[in-house]
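re: ur question from yesterday

yeah so i grabbed the chain u mentioned. its 167 aa long if i counted rite. heres the sequnce exactly as i have it in my notes:
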Amino acid sequence: MGQTGRTSAQPPLTLVPAGADRFGEHHTLGVSSTDFKLATNDTRGGLFVMEHTSQEMGGPPRHLHHNEDEWLYVIEGDYIMEIGTERFRLQSGDSILGPREIPHAWAFAGGTPGKMLIAFAPANKMEEFFRSFKPRGGTYSNWNDPQDKERMRAHGMELLGPPLSLE
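ran it thru and got these C-alpha coordinates back, copy pasting raw so excuse formatting
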Protein backbone atom coordinates (compact mmCIF):
# COMPACT_ATOMS: atom_id res chain seq x y z
CA MET A 1 0.00 0.00 0.00
CA GLY A 2 1.10 3.52 -0.76
CA GLN A 3 0.79 6.65 1.36
CA THR A 4 -2.93 6.95 0.53
CA GLY A 5 -3.70 3.45 1.81
CA ARG A 6 -4.60 2.32 -1.71
CA THR A 7 -3.53 -0.97 -3.27
CA SER A 8 -2.19 -1.39 -6.80
CA ALA A 9 -5.43 -3.23 -7.72
CA GLN A 10 -7.44 -0.04 -7.25
CA PRO A 11 -7.95 2.46 -10.10
CA PRO A 12 -5.55 5.44 -10.00
CA LEU A 13 -6.73 8.66 -8.37
CA THR A 14 -7.44 11.27 -11.02
CA LEU A 15 -8.18 14.94 -10.49
CA VAL A 16 -10.42 16.43 -13.17
CA PRO A 17 -10.09 20.23 -13.07
CA ALA A 18 -13.05 22.57 -13.48
CA GLY A 19 -13.99 22.95 -17.14
CA ALA A 20 -12.04 19.84 -18.15
CA ASP A 21 -12.87 16.33 -19.33
CA ARG A 22 -11.45 13.23 -17.62
CA PHE A 23 -9.62 12.33 -20.86
CA GLY A 24 -9.00 15.84 -22.22
CA GLU A 25 -11.86 15.42 -24.70
CA HIS A 26 -15.07 17.39 -25.18
CA HIS A 27 -18.17 15.66 -26.54
CA THR A 28 -20.69 17.60 -28.62
CA LEU A 29 -24.35 16.61 -28.48
CA GLY A 30 -26.19 18.80 -30.96
CA VAL A 31 -26.59 22.18 -29.25
CA SER A 32 -24.91 21.06 -26.02
CA SER A 33 -21.71 19.40 -24.85
CA THR A 34 -20.48 17.04 -22.15
CA ASP A 35 -17.27 16.51 -20.24
CA PHE A 36 -16.72 13.13 -18.66
CA LYS A 37 -15.87 13.58 -14.97
CA LEU A 38 -15.85 9.98 -13.71
CA ALA A 39 -15.26 7.17 -16.19
CA THR A 40 -16.80 3.72 -16.05
CA ASN A 41 -13.43 2.07 -15.35
CA ASP A 42 -12.72 4.49 -12.47
CA THR A 43 -15.45 2.75 -10.44
CA ARG A 44 -15.21 -0.77 -11.89
CA GLY A 45 -18.50 -0.12 -13.67
CA GLY A 46 -20.40 1.21 -10.68
CA LEU A 47 -20.83 4.80 -11.82
CA PHE A 48 -20.40 7.12 -14.82
CA VAL A 49 -20.62 10.91 -14.28
CA MET A 50 -20.58 13.70 -16.85
CA GLU A 51 -21.01 17.46 -16.78
CA HIS A 52 -23.57 18.56 -19.34
CA THR A 53 -23.52 22.15 -20.65
CA SER A 54 -26.54 23.50 -22.53
CA GLN A 55 -26.07 26.29 -25.05
CA GLU A 56 -29.63 26.33 -26.44
CA MET A 57 -33.07 25.30 -25.24
CA GLY A 58 -34.11 21.67 -25.58
CA GLY A 59 -33.00 18.22 -24.54
CA PRO A 60 -33.05 14.51 -25.31
CA PRO A 61 -36.11 12.60 -26.52
CA ARG A 62 -38.27 10.67 -24.06
CA HIS A 63 -36.50 7.45 -23.21
CA LEU A 64 -35.90 4.92 -20.47
CA HIS A 65 -32.95 2.97 -19.18
CA HIS A 66 -33.42 -0.73 -18.56
CA ASN A 67 -30.39 -1.14 -16.29
CA GLU A 68 -29.31 2.27 -14.92
CA ASP A 69 -30.70 4.90 -12.61
CA GLU A 70 -30.04 8.43 -13.95
CA TRP A 71 -29.44 11.20 -11.40
CA LEU A 72 -29.45 14.83 -12.57
CA TYR A 73 -28.11 17.73 -10.49
CA VAL A 74 -28.55 21.28 -11.78
CA ILE A 75 -25.42 23.39 -11.28
CA GLU A 76 -26.84 26.44 -13.04
CA GLY A 77 -29.77 27.27 -15.27
CA ASP A 78 -33.41 26.32 -15.55
CA TYR A 79 -34.50 22.82 -16.59
CA ILE A 80 -37.82 21.03 -17.04
CA MET A 81 -37.89 17.33 -16.15
CA GLU A 82 -40.57 14.74 -16.76
CA ILE A 83 -40.19 11.50 -14.83
CA GLY A 84 -43.04 9.10 -15.58
CA THR A 85 -46.15 11.31 -15.66
CA GLU A 86 -44.83 14.01 -13.29
CA ARG A 87 -43.32 17.31 -14.45
CA PHE A 88 -40.78 19.32 -12.43
CA ARG A 89 -38.92 22.63 -12.84
CA LEU A 90 -35.36 22.40 -11.52
CA GLN A 91 -32.96 25.27 -10.87
CA SER A 92 -29.47 25.61 -9.39
CA GLY A 93 -28.95 23.18 -6.53
CA ASP A 94 -31.96 20.97 -7.35
CA SER A 95 -31.61 17.30 -8.25
CA ILE A 96 -33.87 14.46 -9.30
CA LEU A 97 -33.59 10.73 -9.92
CA GLY A 98 -34.85 9.07 -13.10
CA PRO A 99 -35.19 5.45 -11.94
CA ARG A 100 -34.51 2.63 -14.38
CA GLU A 101 -37.56 1.41 -16.32
CA ILE A 102 -39.38 4.76 -15.83
CA PRO A 103 -39.78 6.89 -18.99
CA HIS A 104 -38.22 10.33 -18.67
CA ALA A 105 -37.09 13.38 -20.59
CA TRP A 106 -35.65 16.76 -19.73
CA ALA A 107 -35.06 20.07 -21.45
CA PHE A 108 -32.97 23.16 -20.82
CA ALA A 109 -35.45 26.03 -20.57
CA GLY A 110 -32.97 28.81 -21.37
CA GLY A 111 -32.66 32.28 -19.93
CA THR A 112 -29.18 31.82 -18.47
CA PRO A 113 -26.39 29.33 -19.20
CA GLY A 114 -27.26 25.76 -18.23
CA LYS A 115 -25.08 23.13 -16.63
CA MET A 116 -25.84 19.81 -14.91
CA LEU A 117 -24.03 16.85 -13.46
CA ILE A 118 -25.57 13.63 -14.75
CA ALA A 119 -24.71 10.30 -13.13
CA PHE A 120 -25.60 6.78 -14.23
CA ALA A 121 -25.47 3.90 -11.76
CA PRO A 122 -24.38 1.33 -12.53
CA ALA A 123 -22.44 2.70 -15.48
CA ASN A 124 -23.08 -0.21 -17.87
CA LYS A 125 -22.81 1.10 -21.47
CA MET A 126 -23.55 4.80 -20.87
CA GLU A 127 -20.00 6.07 -21.42
CA GLU A 128 -19.83 3.99 -24.61
CA PHE A 129 -23.18 5.47 -25.72
CA PHE A 130 -21.99 9.07 -25.32
CA ARG A 131 -18.69 8.29 -27.05
CA SER A 132 -20.56 6.87 -30.06
CA PHE A 133 -22.99 9.75 -30.34
CA LYS A 134 -23.13 11.58 -33.64
CA PRO A 135 -24.79 15.00 -33.46
CA ARG A 136 -27.58 15.62 -35.94
CA GLY A 137 -28.63 19.12 -36.82
CA GLY A 138 -28.91 20.41 -33.26
CA THR A 139 -30.87 17.50 -31.80
CA TYR A 140 -29.90 14.52 -29.66
CA SER A 141 -31.70 12.05 -31.85
CA ASN A 142 -34.38 11.70 -34.45
CA TRP A 143 -36.86 9.85 -32.30
CA ASN A 144 -38.59 8.32 -35.33
CA ASP A 145 -35.37 7.04 -36.93
CA PRO A 146 -35.04 3.21 -36.71
CA GLN A 147 -31.21 3.53 -36.57
CA ASP A 148 -31.41 5.83 -33.54
CA LYS A 149 -33.86 3.46 -31.85
CA GLU A 150 -31.50 0.55 -32.48
CA ARG A 151 -28.45 2.49 -31.25
CA MET A 152 -30.24 3.26 -27.98
CA ARG A 153 -31.45 -0.34 -27.66
CA ALA A 154 -27.86 -1.57 -28.14
CA HIS A 155 -26.88 0.54 -25.11
CA GLY A 156 -29.70 -0.68 -22.85
CA MET A 157 -32.25 2.07 -23.49
CA GLU A 158 -35.54 2.53 -25.30
CA LEU A 159 -36.32 5.61 -27.39
CA LEU A 160 -39.99 6.36 -26.68
CA GLY A 161 -40.94 9.75 -28.07
CA PRO A 162 -39.98 13.29 -28.99
CA PRO A 163 -38.12 15.77 -26.78
CA LEU A 164 -40.14 17.81 -24.30
CA SER A 165 -42.07 20.76 -25.63
CA LEU A 166 -41.25 23.97 -23.78
CA GLU A 167 -44.42 25.71 -24.93
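noticed a couple things. The chain has two helices and eleven strands. also The CA atoms of residues 125 and 154 lie 9 Å apart.
anyway ttyl
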